[in-house]
TrEMBL record:
Cellular localization per UniProt: Cytoplasm, Cytosol
Enzyme Commission code: 2.7.6.2
Record field: transmembrane: none
GO terms, biological process: thiamine diphosphate biosynthetic process; thiamine metabolic process
GO cellular component, one term: cytosol
The protein, known as: Thiamine pyrophosphokinase
Function: Catalyzes the phosphorylation of thiamine to thiamine pyrophosphate (TPP). TPP is an active cofactor for enzymes involved in glycolysis and energy production. Plant leaves require high levels of TPP for photosynthesis and carbohydrate metabolism.
Record's catalysed reaction(s): thiamine + ATP = thiamine diphosphate + AMP + H(+)
Length: 263
């Protein structure tokens, strides 16, 4: 069984990052403080419908000494895609005038705006067979539970795409059962709180190393044991399971000067 390696080096301040290729999707929920950093290094920048309002309204607040218009011009999304029922008309016109590509899929009321953005990235010429884009989605957690559940569902809909859901407080990734997993932690950025959640189906056997409460061929299921409030002990965690699991780990609060330093 192949090993899938996970690292969160995208959260490292500028200058400390190794080469990595990802697309960023901004969802319609509070923008995490590290968003400018992620934006700077993204190969593609998308807003899911009302996510554009967040970029427009909240990004200038991170730079109180700079002119809001300059910030809005600097952080121009490549694409705004969705069913367009949440983006404000003034925001839509502003980004249209900057040349952002706007894709209105209001005819599709069966998939979420996050789904729509993921399909755009998967079909992009930047997403090469030899070098697939990872996807980071900010604002995926906190707020309406139906939206959160829909966001988790996209991890299961596209299990062969590396998708990380982010909020200010934590990240979530899918660990497919087809692989053994090595998760590399930067202790200055992540942890110590973590969880392994068998959300799609129960797991008869999960084995881990590197956690305070490791599992050894342990059963996990809703209604029984799920591993929440666990703690990472070191910089490397391994996970092997007979079921797809969600991995979540807390994100440490950063020095805001460091987080916003973009290049
Ligand atoms: N409160 C929230 N918590 C988590 N994710 C959210 C939240 N609100 C929006 N999102 C994410 O951002 C995307 C865009 O949000 P937006 O508000 O534009 O969606 P929407 O389709 O208009 O939602 P709805 O019509 O159900 O209110 C959603 O598809 C979802 O992935
Ligand atoms: C069974 C079922 N439940 C809910 C919806 C509604 N819905 C799901 S995704 C979406 C688009 C949101 O931007 C909407 C309106 C549906 N179609 N089918």
């Amino acid at each position: 069984m192949e090993v899938m390696s996970h690292s969160s080096s995208f959260l490292l301040p500028a200058g400390e990052t190794s080469a990595k290729r990802y697309a960023l999707i901004v969802l319609n929920q509070n923008i995490p403080c590290f968003t400018p950093l992620l934006w700077e290094h993204a190969k593609l920048r998308l807003c899911a419908d009302g996510g554009a309002n967040r970029i427009y309204d909240e990004l200038p607040l991170f730079f109180p000494r700079e002119d809001a218009l300059l910030i809005r011009n600097r952080y121009k999304p490549d694409v705004i895609k969705g069913d367009m029922d949440s983006i404000r008309p003034d925001v839509l016109h502003f980004y249209l005038s900057l040349g952002t590509k706007v894709i209105d899929e209001s005819h599709d009321q069966d998939t979420t705006d996050l789904d729509k953005c993921i399909l755009f990235i998967r079909d992009s010429p930047l997403n090469q067979e030899s070098s697939k884009l990872q996807i980071l989605a900010t604002g995926a957690l906190g707020g309406r539970f139906d939206h959160e559940a829909g966001n988790l569902n996209v991890l299961y809909r596209y299990p062969d795409t590396r998708i990380t859901l982010l909020s200010d407080d934590c990240l979530i990734q899918l660990l497919p059962k087809t692989h053994r997993h090595e998760i590399h932690i930067q202790p200055s950025l992540l942890g110590p709180h973590c969880g392994l959640i068998p959300i799609g189906a129960p797991s008869a056997k999960t084995t881990t190393t590197g956690l305070q409460w490791d599992l050894t061929d342990t059963e996990m299921r809703f209604g029984g044991l799920v591993s929440t409030s666990n703690l990472v002990k070191g910089e490397k965690i391994t996970v092997k399971s007979d079921s797809d699991l969600l991995w979540t780990i807390s994100i440490k609060k950063q020095d805001s000067n460091k987080t916003l330093r973009s290049g």
